[in-house]
Amino acid sequence: MTVNAIVWGENVHEQRDALVREIYPDGMHNSIAVALNADPAIKATTATLQEPEHGLTEKRLASTDVLLWWGHTAHGAVDDEIVERVVKQVWEGMGLILLHSAHFSKLFKRLMGTSCALKYREAGERERLWAVNPRHPIAEGVGEHFTLENEEMYGEPFSVPEPLETVFISWFAGGEVFRSGLTYRRGAGNIFYFRPGHETYPTYHDETVQKVLRNAVKWAHNPQTSYAAIQELPHVPVESALEPIVHRDPKRFFLPAAGSV
Amino acid sequence: MTVNAIVWGENVHEQRDALVREIYPDGMHNSIAVALNADPAIKATTATLQEPEHGLTEKRLASTDVLLWWGHTAHGAVDDEIVERVVKQVWEGMGLILLHSAHFSKLFKRLMGTSCALKYREAGERERLWAVNPRHPIAEGVGEHFTLENEEMYGEPFSVPEPLETVFISWFAGGEVFRSGLTYRRGAGNIFYFRPGHETYPTYHDETVQKVLRNAVKWAHNPQTSYAAIQELPHVPVESALEPIVHRDPKRFFLPAAGSV
Amino acid sequence: MTVNAIVWGENVHEQRDALVREIYPDGMHNSIAVALNADPAIKATTATLQEPEHGLTEKRLASTDVLLWWGHTAHGAVDDEIVERVVKQVWEGMGLILLHSAHFSKLFKRLMGTSCALKYREAGERERLWAVNPRHPIAEGVGEHFTLENEEMYGEPFSVPEPLETVFISWFAGGEVFRSGLTYRRGAGNIFYFRPGHETYPTYHDETVQKVLRNAVKWAHNPQTSYAAIQELPHVPVESALEPIVHRDPKRFFLPAAGSV
Amino acid sequence: MTVNAIVWGENVHEQRDALVREIYPDGMHNSIAVALNADPAIKATTATLQEPEHGLTEKRLASTDVLLWWGHTAHGAVDDEIVERVVKQVWEGMGLILLHSAHFSKLFKRLMGTSCALKYREAGERERLWAVNPRHPIAEGVGEHFTLENEEMYGEPFSVPEPLETVFISWFAGGEVFRSGLTYRRGAGNIFYFRPGHETYPTYHDETVQKVLRNAVKWAHNPQTSYAAIQELPHVPVESALEPIVHRDPKRFFLPAAGSV
């Protein structure tokens, strides 16, 4: 069974910043897609902000198993309608992986219901990720820890709901910690937030990061049929109740005595 | 220490429907507020949809410890701006109790990030609530179970995130079950969803329901100072890092060899 | 990839009680194993209390992916040493599925750290299981609910830790509810408790129950290498610290001033 | 309302090691008790391994609201019977706070159902604790982070169940991270694990550590009546079912057709 994944990239820094282009000549989204496609069980394509409907048409999403999302400077340019479309697709069972600065995307904030704020510092400092849940599928083959020699720092408190499970926690040279790998379920959709990936560092060329992303795509994939009913509010008539009941007339109900609350 | 609570009521059914008015002559919100004020540790007032800013001015919310919310037929009439105001207040530490049909309010859906859908049937059937977490503060003094002889049925699946803790589960005469008491934290705010309370039944006159509501208000109260920083995204300059680090020039970073991913 | 499963049966009621033998002529464990083997991805064998080491030798467990456990009247006859052996295997990554009265097995209580108590009634009453987490892998293909016309009742409060996720909740004709499908992780091991399965009813002949068991076996399977290190308490010498540090002499530490706490 | 707390100390290092005695002339347990008693809402006394029944008689426990536990070198000397006594008291509602090396106590392992293993290094290195849940009651008044200049390192993976909430995460100078403040509920008992407190460092003289301990005692206190029923397995006779049901004779149940599973 092949997992159909889309790597969605904001694709702005790559156009504007020579350094980013030097690291990711084909854009971050393409580098990530190539890394995913190294696993024959994954078939990854890309989509970007600049495409019509940001490349995420209803038709395309309908056949997508897992969406990865990288955004940063252009969160505000993402169409609210597309965000809602993706949200509903997640509820119905599409997996979602939020990368790095996507913590502040409309999409992640919409699904978390929190501010998703954190602290940050861009100093190219050392980040060491510890697998605190060492046999979680997303940590498979990763070892106890791995190091990214140059990364942006994200520091706690990270204002997100308590996760289902914490998979990674980061140590930063400058003295901070961060919950770097968190899982959630929203409706039928599996969600993973993964911290690393600042555009000015070669993080997505790191083999362990690539391994984590492949693991995460396979973990997030929910092979079941789409849970379209999740937005419905079905009325169950008395006549079709599973146990025989009769409709009781509210008028006959006990009413509070005069003077009581 | 007194807990300042506001009972927010949509206050529409009471105006339109003689039966509801007969059960709650002063409106549901007032009945609930009176029930809360039976505890000297709580000082409850009310607010309604019809008031300017729905009765929820910034000034008033700033001195509110816990907000209770009942809405049903007029969810769409609630101003988005007021919803955002309340959301931010919750993140900063105000407790929030969602009552019955508030499961489908903009407010609850905004904080959960899910559809919050369920099934329903209005037949005045028996509901029995079981305290599955018998010494949770919200279940204090409630006993193992209590019964509401006439209630609307809400049935699973209830599309909400996995809660911090499940406090109550309901049994319905027609054959359904429902997670009737669920706790969440969003930012600094404690949130409790409590299922019973259909407008055509005298639920809020029930002594055990009133007890649960008083318990919930006291549980939801976070006496700490407002966590206003929760929406900030502070930059931590290299110079003020807690551990001495130097800024590393991205240009010097390892770049992938030609031909690699 | 085939999942190697062992169905462990206490195998006492089948020997003593003609009714049970009539329902399960080959024993409950064999009926369950046959049901699992209907899925070509599963290879299930059996083990019983009466075998040497209860059929769970170290060698056999070492090649087992998932263990299912049914016990009731002979919990006390299970060797503590075998319990510890299984516990460690679970920590190292073997999946574990506890069936019905196994809620009170030494094994489940050992892994939960709670009393695992509940209420019960044996009246052959109707049980309806609701999938409250409809696209969880264990609920795949099960539908919104399914009914067992004759079952023993288990009622809340069920004294277990808050689960990772609640998959099923049961409705009973006599008025109780029960969290019937609960997931946990202990170390590298996935654990699922599944309520139905009283010996005097043909529950394990029910097609939906069989489907749930097959789903659960596949869900509980952790294909990663055994996490043998989980019981080790490794010392990390100063010399091999990941960041250069020096040993600081405790004698030089700040001591509290005279008179302070 | 005063919270009755017992600080249980192993009290071995203090007797054997001059350095420890120099830091804690009256024993660690007494230093901690004095720190707790600085809050008029807490009345803390002490108990030690060397006392009859380790100072934890049934009578004394019965009037105890919260127990704090520090042990290290003599875990094996703790009487299994006393451990079970304390476990049951926790289930019935007594709060429990496990300090530092108590992660490996019989008591904590018994309540977690996991190995509770971790890595360690004794180098007097810097530990910085981050409050990742900044308005949790246990983090009240603590600020975003605080530093212990000299502590033993504990490193992940920490083999414990996923907590209800993570309150603190530690950064260590040598490159590790650790979930330093974790909450659990077992039965009616609130449990908090708090990492710092190695005997050769003056950790319990630190004002912020003392503040955390006072917060934790008040948080762990469950003022409700003892939940003695938690170990009972009540039978509910058909005659006293909440809904009228009749006993159905198993003999009349559907039996599988010949040849079926």
Model description:
The structure is a homotetramer of 261-residue chains. Chain A is of the alpha/beta class. Helix content of chain A is 22%, strand content 28%. Residues 255-261 of chain A have low confidence and may be disordered. The radius of gyration of chain A is 22 Å and the shape is globular. The longest helix of chain A has 14 residues, at 207-220. Chain A has helices spanning 13-16, 18-23, 28-37, 58-62, 80-91, 106-112, 207-220; strands spanning 3-9, 42-48, 66-70, 95-99, 119-131, 145-155, 165-172, 177-186, 189-194. In chain A, α5 (80-91) links the parallel β3 (66-70) and β4 (95-99). Chains in contact: A-B, A-C, A-D, B-C, B-D, C-D. Chains B and C meet through β5 and β7 of B and β5 and β7 of C.
